[in-house]
Structures are given as structure tokens and as C-alpha cells.
């Protein structure tokens, strides 16, 4: 009886034939492998077993990691950067900004992903409050499609910073030391949740300090309604020619004076 141990490899380039009353091949640990480029056949007096052709196992391709790279820009192309405060990019209400997101190339072009806007709350002390997802009482969602930009797969989201969100800044200021909103997006791809909390946008109140609206809805009166800094209304008078040319222009500043007859009337306003 011949015993062999360890790893035994036999490469036979011709024909190998063994005959005996009985042959036993066993593996004490691990699998017992037989390989052939064609077929492996076992014959017995009372029957046999035939295995199919050996198929070389192909190496599985390593799954590539899905990545996202984000930034904010003032232009759709994403070639310029927003101004920054001491920490993050900043913008102002009534401006339009663009969220740029380079994605892995394995995310196909034309893929549609839904994003939701959030405001990160930085509080003075621990609080049960979560980050805000409503602005002027409404949730903000954007659907975006993966497009190709200079050989890269990219998503671009246009966001108009509504002046109606000013009240959200005031509310946020009461809860924290912020005088601005801190915007980020959340989204889901392949049942995995993602966010851009590491790419916050600081949103400040509008730079606009003077708001003008038409005094009346009349095409014959094309001048705005303007108030001075102390609340006095400034009126305009125009004399036009038949062809619409302005012939005479006057400006009048009015101040309201209230006369009180009784002490009781004065007390109403104190």
C-alpha cells in the first residue's frame, strides 16, 4: 500500500492507465477535484457515472463603488464658484443657484433621480428638533437626469431662492445662532440613501432693500408706488401728449397730519 500526503499534482500529456482490484481516492480535508478539457468518465461493472465537460470558471468582475462629487455654482455649466463666507459657499434670496453632482459612470445616462431640499439646524444645545424639510410651508423636490459633461456623468439642479423663504431664516435664527439657512439635498439610488450635508449652501436674506409695485392696475398710469423712509408717499403727476410723449412731469411728497379734538382720541394712538 502506497500512501501519499500533501499536495499532489500530476500532469499527464499522454495516456495513463491504472488497474487494480480496487482503487480508493479520498481527501481528508477540502474538496477532491478532477479536471479535464473534455470529459471525465467513471465505468463500473454494474454501472457508471459520467460528468460533463470541464468549464473554466470566469473571474467575477469586481463591482465598482458608486461615488458622488458635489458643489454649488452660479451657472448651469458649473464652471464658476459661488462666493464664500467664512465656512461655505453663500447665496442670497432672489438669486438662482445650481447644484452640480458628478456621479459614477456606471450610473447610466438618462437616469432620473428625485432630490429633496433640507435645511440643517445648528442649535445652541441638544434639541429634539430635526432638520427642516419645509420652506414657506412646502416641501421642495426636484427631478434631475444624468447627462454627459466633458466625458463625465453629471446631474445639475436649478434652484431659485424664493424671497418667501425669508420667514424661514427668521425662524431658524430663533432656534440657533444662524442668520442664514444651510441647504443640502437628499436622494436615493439603488435603495441606498445619500445626502450632500458635506456640501452645505448658506442662504442669506435678499440684497434688495427697496421694493416697488404699481400703484394701480391701470395701463394709463405707468408709475410705481414709492414710499420714503419715514412712510410718506411720493406721488407723480404726468401730462402726456396724444402720442404718449411726456410733456410735463411733477413729483409731490405728501405727509399725513392728524388733528385730535379730544384727549380721549389722542389716547387711542398711544
What features would you describe in this structure?
- The chain is mainly beta.
- The chain is built from 2 helices and 16 strands.
- Strands 4, 6, 7, 10, 11 and 12 form a 6-stranded mixed β-sheet that branches.
- The longest helix has 10 residues, at 166-175.
- The radius of gyration is 39 Å and the shape is elongated.
- Mean pLDDT is 75; it is low at 124-128.
Summed up:
With about 270 residues, this protein is mainly beta. It has helices at about 165-175, 265, and strands at about 40-45, 45-50, 70-75, 90, 95-105, 110-120, 140-145, 145-150, 150-160, 180-190, 190-195, 200-205, 215, 225, 235-240, 245-255.
Summary keywords:
single chain, 270 residues, mainly beta, four-stranded antiparallel beta sheet, 2 helices
- The total strand number stands at 16
- Major beta sheet summary: 6 strands, mixed
Rounded to the nearest angstrom, the distance between the terminal CA atoms is: 120 Å
In helices, the fraction of residues equals under 10%
Beta fraction of the residues?
25-35%
- What's the order of the H and E elements? EEEEEEEEEHEEEEEEEH
| Morphology | elongated
Oligomer: single chain
Helical stretch count?
2
Radius of gyration, in angstroms, nearest whole number: 39 Å
Structural class: mainly beta
Mean pLDDT: 75
Low-confidence stretches: 124-128
